[in-house]
Amino acid sequence: MNCVSQTMSVQKKLRRPKFSKRMEKFVELALPDVDFWDICCDHGYVGILGLRSEKFTKVYFVDSVPHIMNRLEQLFLESPNTPSPERFELMTVNGELITREIYGNLLVAGVSGTTVVKILSSLFHRQCLFAKRLILSPHSDLQWVKDLFQEGFGELASKYCFTQLIEVEEGGRMRPILICDRCE
Fold it and tell me: According to the model, what pLDDT value does residue 3 have?
């Protein structure tokens, strides 16, 4: 692929990513006029959808895989549709190791329930987790994650209350989305 073809491909991806119903639901369920953190963002499509919605003050794309974040950065650098840099931030870091305070919405999707719990526990115990809403969509161990919030997950369960479980069809399967809101 030559440079012109590659640039055109990058522009098309940022302009018209393939959004699934579940991705759209993540953005729909998030609280407006606050930050949106997409932890383990992978290709960044949910965050891109969030930016395009103009629903959030700032969108944070977080993934630990450098080539994923480099590719996403290239998409933003080479696209004429890139929002102003004040509206988004790219972070190449393991979700458990984020050192910034997290406010607004926190999405963790497409990873195991064990990974979801590790990320939340680490952020909470390091006093970084202040999000108003958690949007969780693990690909396994959903009941365990749900039970942790409903039956008491130590201090974290005292701060976040299970609000609702929604299922969205994707790829012929029902995909769960668990919502937990800050109780305080």
Answer: 43
Q: Which residue type sits at 2?
A: N
b/e per residue, 42-67, with b = 16+ CB within 10 A?
A: bbbbbbbbbbbeebbebbbbbbeeee
For 26-44, how does the pLDDT look when each residue is reduced to its tens digit (9 = 90+)?
999 999 999 999 999 998 9
Contact 63, 42 (CB under 8 A): yes
- The CATH number for 3-182, chosen from 3.40.50.150, 3.30.10.20, 3.40.50.720, 3.40.640.10, is 3.40.50.150
Q: Which residue has the tokens 């974040």?
A: 69
pLDDT tens figures, 96-106:
999 999 999 99
Structure tokens at 62: 């977080």
As given in the structure block, the two tokens for residue 90 are 């790219």
- The whole model's pTM is what? 0.88
